[in-house]
Amino acid sequence: MHRLLTGAIALAVSGLAAVSAAAEDYRLGLITPPSHMWSVTATRMAEDIKAQTDGRVNILIFPSGQLGNEAQMLQQMQTGALDFAFLTLGEFANRDPNYGIFLAPYIVDDVAGASKLLTGGVAQELLDGMADFGLVGLGWGMAGMRMIVTGFPVESAADLNGKKIRTIPFAPELAFWQQVGAAPTPMPLPALYDAFANGQVDGMQIDVEGTWNSKYYEHAKGIVISDHMMFPMAAVASGRKWATISDADRAVVEKAMDDYLAALVTGYAEIDADYLAKLETTGVPVTRVDRAWFGPSIDSWYEEWREKAPMLKKLEAEASN
Length: 321
Ligand code: BEZ
Fold this sequence. Notes:
Radius of gyration: 22 Å
CATH architecture of the largest domain: 3-Layer(aba) Sandwich
Helix content: 40-55%
Mean pLDDT: 93
CATH superfamily of the largest domain: Bacterial extracellular solute-binding protein, family 7
CATH topology of the largest domain: D-Maltodextrin-Binding Protein, domain 2
Distance between the termini: 75 Å
Low-confidence stretches: 1-21
CATH class of the largest domain: Alpha Beta
Bound molecules: benzoic acid
Largest sheet: 10 strands, mixed
């Protein structure tokens, strides 16, 4: 082979080696299906980060709990076996009640109120505290406002008495449903459609988007638009893995997280409204209710959780400003 050509090939190969040595595949796990906005946002954000880092940070997305449930993902992140995740509050709230305070019923009226709290001082304090879990808190997202889907007709909150209502196994959510008089029944999202279809649960606390996309309405006799809680998501990185990423690439990831999470949160005003309009075409009766509908159960929840989670009072102060 010509000496010059050999040299050029050697140069090209060594150049490739340099790029691939610096480029790395990372994994981001989450429990939502590919159609959910969390998964869609993760995918778009990963493409953007890859482009901005010239392929050095290539984040592969694993939706639908493919890498395990949230407890397993948290463990993997602590050992550095998983790099990033979008997590609900469950694993945090069950370790430190302060992480449950975003689930305070009616602490906000709508997505705009949620957006304000998720970018406020308490939210930042909780992100910083994730170092105690071996994580780096990168920001907060959300899945809109919570609603209720039932396999029985609902007129008043008394109709929920003794009913098995699916929740996530978060202490504050379980406490809410106990206060309401229902039988809160923890159930992971991927198992929910079948559990509702075969009567293992009588109803569910859920998001508007999921109710449409996962067709929970197919077995419903009632849809209650209660907007009773926001439903935050924590975007986190493994502390061990984060430490191996260069400062410049971390800055790209941080900025992308800020931008995509802000768009995700504020986007839910429209997402919830659009999916609600779709649900209204299903023929399942849709009832709109407010805080008063739940009676004294909400005040009792606050009495209990102000004691359990000292940061709740600070969040209430932020909400009322
Ligand atoms: C749920 O389990 O209800 C849920 C989890 C993640 C996003 C939306 C809903």
